[in-house]
Amino acid sequence: MNHYFTEDGLYSHSLPEGKGRIPRNARRASLPADPWTGVWPRWNGKVWEMIEDHRKRDGAHAQEGTLYWLAGDTADTPPRYMTTIGPLPEGALTTRPEGEPENG
């Protein structure tokens, strides 16, 4: 199986091995075992490593995603979601800020 990765090394998909040479953006090295909850594989040039991932994902490696709020957010502020792979922003809170909603 060829495991493909993006320009920055992030795993993108797998396809059966074809005839001939392996593409430059693929490796046959085994991917890390599932589940990939909170992490995602990245090819570092030698091995697949798992990096922090808080995105909502669907499909074979689905996860709910991590809701978070930032300093200055209020009880009315809707939760934020990560759209890129990596850690939550510095100072992120994973519980809704306390206080009375302004619209309630």
Describe the structure.
This protein is mainly beta and 104 residues long. 0% of the residues lie in helices and 20% in strands. The protein is built from no helices and 5 strands. The strands form 2 sheets. A 3-stranded antiparallel beta sheet has the order 2-1-3, with no helix packed on it. A two-stranded antiparallel ribbon has the order 4-5. The N and C termini lie far apart (55 Å). The mean pLDDT is 93.
Instruction: List the helices and strands in order.
Output: EEEEE
Oligomerization category of the chains in this entry: single chain
Mean pLDDT, rounded to whole units?
93
User: What Rg is obtained from the alpha carbons, in whole angstroms?
Assistant: 18 Å
The helix count comes to: 0
Shape: elongated
Summarize the main sheet.
Answer: 3 strands, antiparallel
Secondary structure: number of strands? 5
Structural class: mainly beta
What amount of the residues lies in strands? 15-25%
Low-confidence stretches: none
Distance between the termini: 55 Å
Percent range for helical residues? under 10%
For the largest sheet, list the strands in their spatial order.
Answer: 2-1-3
Salient structural properties:
104 residues, mainly beta, 3-stranded antiparallel sheet, two-stranded antiparallel sheet, 5 strands, 0% helix, elongated
What's a concise summary of this model?
Helices cover 0% and strands 20% of the residues. With 104 residues, it is mainly β. The protein has a three-stranded antiparallel β-sheet, with no helix packed on it.
